[in-house]
Design goal:
Helices cover 31% and strands 25% of the residues. By secondary structure, the protein is an alpha+beta fold. Among the domains are: 289-375, Alpha-Beta Complex (Dipeptide-binding Protein, domain 1), CATH 3.90.76; 477-712, Dipeptide-binding Protein, domain 3, CATH 3.10.105. Strands 18, 19, 20, 21, 22, 23, 24 and 25 form an eight-stranded mixed β-sheet that branches. The radius of gyration is 30 Å and the shape is globular. The two termini are 25 Å apart. It comes from Ralstonia syzygii R24. InterPro entries: AAA+_ATPase (IPR003593), ABC_Ni/Peptide_Import (IPR050388), ABC_transporter-like_ATP-bd (IPR003439), ABC_transporter-like_CS (IPR017871), Oligopep_ABC_C (IPR013563), P-loop_NTPase (IPR027417), SBP_5_dom (IPR000914). Belongs to the ABC transporter superfamily. It is a peripheral membrane protein.
């Protein structure tokens, strides 16, 4: 196969839908290629991801979905990286789509000729008469009788089969290089279906058009396609020549699809169904908890996985969970707690060794989601251990796929495979986690072969790594947002001084006009483009677009230094003041560089800003005490919806209730607190979404925090290894596999 024959390459495509209940991986690591003039049948049940794959290639995935990773190479150009204007030049021109319902293509109030002429002229310089002639000829090419008469018709005057032929003809107007047909013959009778299949196959062969035919019907694929790819739960489970796959299927799901087809050779044979249903792509996945259900609005029952053992061989029971939740409310010596996840929990009791009953103070529909963020520790080890024992590794005892071996502070953690792990044995016998704070050093270690995988790849090294034949880069839209947190502490602050160098008597950051001025003075796009090298997206609120609670009415924050200066003057600071911003130097990728850029923007409007970088070990404790005037926080949005930050970052600090654990500036807004309370009790999804959107607007209007950008999570691995990225920016050994396995 020559390079010119290769029309389409889909590599590790992931299209996810970001919903309040989690991230739905509708297309998960799909790869295939297609040559000129070849036909690929994409087969699967409803919900398998086959149509979303087609829409992803066309660039037609609407919110809350988006292409989350991978490459779609059309004639060597990655469609996922094309600007919208360039992509539109290809859509309907070099790449066309035929939908299951032809009325998704046809406008019912316009004649066929008007629609076809418009489609022709959108991508060509033809005059009206030329375009009409071309449209008529294309109808004839599709075997449509009396094409002149059909041009003058309205869609409702055509039969279903004729409308679908017209839709295919519109797709063929520019003799595209690639056509994606999404079950276009499903609603037609078998005679019309056979005619259209024959015509489409002939056109593909004659014009060298690559064709993806999406269907649930293997019998259609058998007579049409050269290759077949079988999709199940968002993944391709079998792919090969049609005859080979249908004659000798290797995957049980493919065999199930074949067995469900009627046979003319065996009269009276019962049609077989595939047992069960396709797995849910949305729900929380069972772990140590196998299942959970509400018994009433304030009572939940959790069933635990039987047969699980701690690494020291003792059984895992409900007592371990109860102990973990009691300890998590207030970990001695910790700069933060897990109390925010447990703030509505009133009691946790064991019904039996593998059944928990949890009662809440108020109805809490998000309880399972919150509990997923609280890790379980063993009671028999924890009862005789303190925080120092955990930090040193002496109290580590888990149930996961790897056992703790050793910990060297600031250097590495060594782990060995747990062959008794309930979730299956890892291919890796030993895992060595190295702490390499310097981004350039991480890259150098990867390129030299000292390490196999690195995370938090420096944007300065992205181009270099992508060009290396021995490295593969994996990028994934993340949920982490970079925020600046102003201090809301009353009175003077040593880090807020006047132009005479003396502490200001009152905190200017308490004035919303000053906070808004600082926000308007930041050129976020410049930071994203120049410092992050576009490996991030500009943020105007703490949740990224298309997630649960994101408020589309909160507009992008403009870069407006003139308005910023006016606001400062209105607030009584026409000459500005001095500010010291504190950031960790060993925590956030491009954090110090971002802070320096912000300092320059603020200095230009009169707020002369100095940046002090501090090791995280010191920074976290002082920031948590509200010691700083302006601090930096890269917040992870761990639950994937807006209430997580409300509880931990924006709620009024209340340690007894577990609120505001990361509210380092001690922001307090009663309206936001009331909205949080209301959202917690709202089981109705739409009502809860509306409350969260309102809370986002409240914080935005009050400039409670200054959002800067949303990170992309970026990993790089040596050749031969494959990383399965996640919305979390953390790295687990189970994410890494040998490429091709």
């Amino acid at each position: 196969m020559s390079a010119t024959d290769l029309m389409l390459q889909v590599r590790n495509l992931r299209t996810h839908f970001f919903t309040r209940d989690g991230v739905l991986p509708a297309v998960d690591d799909v790869s295939f290629s297609l040559e000129r003039g070849r036909i690929l049948g994409l087969v699967g049940e409803s919900g398998s991801g086959k149509s979303v794959t087609g829409f992803s290639i066309m660039g037609l995935v609407d919110p809350p979905g988006r292409v989350a990773g991978g490459e779609i190479l059309f004639q060597g150009r990655d469609l996922t990286r094309l600007p919208a204007r360039e992509l539109r030049k290809l859509q309907g021109n070099r790449i066309a789509m035929v939908f299951q319902d032809p009325m998704m293509t046809l406008n019912p109030v316009l004649r066929i000729e008007a629609q076809m002429i418009e489609a022709v002229r959108a991508h060509s310089g033809m005059r009206h008469a030329q375009a009409r002639e071309h449209a008529r000829d294309t109808l004839g090419l599709m075997g449509i009788p009396s094409p002149e008469e059909r041009l003058r018709a309205y869609p409702h005057q055509l039969s279903g089969g004729m409308r679908q032929r017209v839709a295919i003809a519109i797709a063929m107007l520019h003799r595209p290089d690639l056509i994606i047909a999404d079950e276009p013959t499903t609603a037609l009778d078998v005679t019309i279906q056979a005619q259209i299949l024959s015509e489409v196959q002939k056109l593909a062969r004659q014009h060298g058009t690559a064709l993806i035919w999406i269907t649930h019907d293997l019998s259609v694929v058998a007579g049409l396609a050269d290759e077949v790819a079988v999709m199940y739960a968002g993944r391709i489970v079998e792919h090969g020549p049609v005859d080979a796959v249908l004659d000798t299927p290797l995957h049980p799901y493919t065999q199930g699809l074949i067995d469900s087809l009627p046979s003319e050779n065996r009269r009276g044979r019962r049609l077989r169904q595939i047992p069960g249903m396709t797995p849910s792509l949305l729900a929380l996945q069972p772990g140590l908890a196998l299942s959970w259900k509400p018994l009433d609005p304030k009572t939940w029952e959790f069933k635990l996985r039987p047969g699980v053992k701690w690494h020291d061989g003792k059984p895992f029971t409900a007592d371990d969970v109860i102990f973990s939740y009691q300890r998590a409310r207030s970990v001695p010596g910790s700069v933060a707690t897990f109390a925010g996840y447990l703030r509505t929990v009133e009691s946790v009791t064991a019904k039996d060794p593998l059944t928990l009953v949890i009662k809440t103070t108020i109805p809490n529909p998000d309880l399972p989601l919150n509990l997923a963020s609280v890790h379980i520790v063993s009671k028999h080890v924890g009862e005789k251990s303190n925080t120092e024992d955990y930090n040193a590794g002496r109290a580590v005892d888990g149930t996961g796929p790897f056992k703790f071996v050793s910990y060297t502070p600031g250097d590495r953690v060594v782990m060995a495979r747990n062959d008794a792990y309930w979730g299956g044995k890892s291919p890796w016998e030993k895992v060595n986690y190295r702490y390499i704070n310097n981004a350039a050093a991480r890259t150098a270690n990867l390129l030299s072969g000292e390490v196999d995988v690195i995370d938090k790849v420096s944007v300065a090294d992205l181009a270099r790594l992508r060009q290396s034949p021995n490295v593969k880069v994996y990028a994934y839209p993340g949920l982490r947002v970079m925020l600046l947190q102003p201090s809301f502490r009353q009175g003077p602050n040593e880090y807020l001084t006047g132009n005479d160098g003396k502490p200001l008597p009152n905190n200017p950051l308490l004035d919303v006009r000053v906070r808004r001025a600082l926000s308007l003075a930041i050129d976020r796009k410049a930071i994203v483009d120049r410092i992050l090298q576009s490996a991030a997206t500009v943020a105007s609120q703490w949740m990224p677009a298309d997630t649960f609670g994101y408020n589309p009415e909160v507009k992008d924050i403009p870069y407006d230094p003139a308005q910023a200066r006016k606001l400062l003057a209105d607030a009584g600071f026409p000459q500005g003041f001095n500010l010291v911003m504190h950031v960790p130097n060993d925590r956030y990728p491009q954090g110090p560089e971002t802070a320096q850029a912000v300092a320059q923007f603020w200095t230009r409007i009169g707020v002369k800003t100095k940046v002090e970088v501090v090791p995280w070990s010191i920074y976290a404790g002082r920031a948590n005490k509200n010691d700083y005037a302006m601090s930096m926080l890269a917040w992870g949005n761990g639950t994937g919806e807006a209430s997580y930050a409300l509880v931990n970052v924006l709620a009024t600090v209340d340690t007894k209730k577990g609120l505001g654990a990361s509210n380092w500036g001690h922001y307090s807004n009663q309206a936001v607190d009331h909205a949080l309370d209301a959202s917690t009790e709202a089981f109705n999804t739409e009502k809860r979404a509306a409350i969260l959107r309102h809370s986002v607007k409240l914080v935005s209007d009050d400039v409670g925090v200054l959002p800067l950008y949303h990170y992309q999570n970026v990993w790089a691995a040596k050749k031969g290894l494959k990383v399965t990225p996640m919305t979390s920016d953390r790295t687990a050994a189970m994410m890494v596999a040998q490429d091709g396995k």
